[in-house]
Amino acid sequence: MMKELLQKDRRLVILRVLYESAGYTANDSVLDCGLDAYGHKVSRDVVKAELVWLEEQGLISNEDLKGTFVSTITQRGIDVATGQATNPGVKRPSPV
């Protein structure tokens, strides 16, 4: 239960960091720092696994540049990050 809650929150944090980034894009290092800032101390492997999952859901796109993922949020990802849509496996944001 707790593992699933943390996983859903990690995914929302990733989407929000991408939404707030210039060009809606960030690499896995920046996303890892963003997760750290929101209390998610996880390995880079966990970050990359979440990025792959988010891409499979159509919420982001990933480009692998020699082992570094550069991720860009999609319109659907923006909708989920802002609470205009929901996606199973991603925490719904609280009202602002």
Describe the structure.
This protein is of the alpha+beta class. It has four helices and three strands; from the N terminus they run H-E-H-H-E-E-H. The chain has a three-stranded antiparallel sheet with strand order 1-3-2. A hairpin with a 2-residue loop joins strand 2 (60-65) and strand 3. Helix 2 (28-37) packs across helix 3. The longest helix has 19 residues, at 2-20. It is globular, with a radius of gyration of 12 Å. The mean pLDDT is 96.
Low-confidence stretches: none
Compressed to H and E, one letter per element, the order equals: HEHHEEH
* Estimated radius of gyration: 12 Å
The count of DSSP E runs of length 2 or more, i.e. the number of strands, is: 3
Strand order of the largest sheet: 1-3-2
Give the CA-CA distance, first to last residue: 26 Å
Shape: globular
**Broad structural category:** alpha+beta
Main β-sheet description: 3 strands, antiparallel
Average pLDDT value?
96
Query: In what range is the share of β-strand residues?
Result: 15-25%
State the assembly state of the protein chains: single chain
Number of helical segments?
4
Helix content: 40-55%
